[in-house]
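Ticket #429: bound-state structure for inosinic acid.
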Amino acid sequence: MANVTVIGGQWGDEGKGKIVDWLASRAQVVVRFQGGHNAGHTLVVGEQTYKLSLLPSGIVRGTLSVIGNGVVLDPWALRTEVEKLSGQGVSISPETLQIADTCPLILPFHRDLDALREDASGQGKIGTTRRGIGPAYEDKVGRRAIRVCDLAHLGELGPQLDRLCAHHDALRAGFGEPPIDRERLQRELGEIADFVLQFARPVWITLNAARSRGDRILFEGAQGVLLDVDHGTYPFVTSSNTIAGTAAGGTGLGPNAVGFVLGIVKAYTTRVGAGPFPTELDDEVGQRLGERGHEFGTVTGRKRRCGWFDAVLVRQSCAVAGVTGIALTKIDVLDGLEEIRICTGYRLRGQMLDHLPAHAADQAAVEPVYEVMKGWQESSAGARSWAQLPAQAIKYIRRIEELIHCPVALVSTSPEREDTILVRDPFAN
Ligand code: IMP
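RESOLUTION: The complex was predicted; output attached.
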């Protein structure tokens, strides 16, 4: 049975929540494999809107939901989200939620460090979500992390805490902050341990068993390829690999489990936080896209920067992430524009480029080269077939396919789950 891996094809916020929800209703398992509660997935089911940051989207419909080892887990954020969703009538139990016992924890001092660094960075600010994501990943690869399985051995944490505190206390001293209050940390971990441990499992066993049974597994990526720590607009990126390959390493399944790679791509471009954005619009068109597209961050409420579709970036994302087909979202936000621009290349100091250069200064200096298309005045909102789309909108979609060298598998025309045009079923491949 085919699996599907959903990833963001731009800088996150492409509308993954709706597509994942739609696919989750046909999967037996939904798995998060990277990131943490920096993600923001909005799901609209009937009259209810659910906002998820850490939990896999399958949880809302009672599908087995797994948080893989590639995720960094804030135990307190987990409890808050579980309580919030339970208050909305979602049933969450160890039958529906499993968390890898190898997940590194985000601890309160990771959050402090994230904020301290951002505040001290002036112009160099990354604009992180201040959730402690970066510092927690640093401790993971620095081999200092406290992991979910450690919560069952709190009495033996001493030497691990020595290493962790020695590292962080030095950093904190540099910021004029007091050392970590170890007693308080141990007490807080003791208070939250049982809550987290009820969900803790060697999830690689669950997932491999699901695979052997032929269950459909949906891997739910967070953020987007342009925020990938290797392939993104470094250093203005998140601290994990957001490409599809992480679905294997971040869960305990091999690379052949990844299946159909569905890249979610918005019909224009947005970005939250700092960093280069070649097609950014500082005019009334950008303003209009932000308003019509409700472009405010799910997690931080920050206004998103908006701009034209950048085919150079999406072509690069599709290539480096191995995207099989894209889901094009929010096409209806472009309704009513006289003309629409697509970036087809860059000019850098007189030279033409067909890709984003690696260096941050070059990324900031590239000028977009645009192709101009006629817009459409009819509404595309709620279209469920090609026939219901304005002819000019179809031309726009077809041109995007050509430019990014990747076919469209789905088109999304409103936040409603049913307002989707299915071109190629990702699960059927
Ligand atoms: P961090 O992931 O909190 O370290 O933030 C690093 C960068 O990734 C910042 O530019 C954030 O705005 C961005 N970012 C992190 N998570 C998301 C997301 O889910 N959507 C969009 N941008 C995100």
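RESOLUTION NOTES: The mean pLDDT is 95.
TICKET STATUS: resolved
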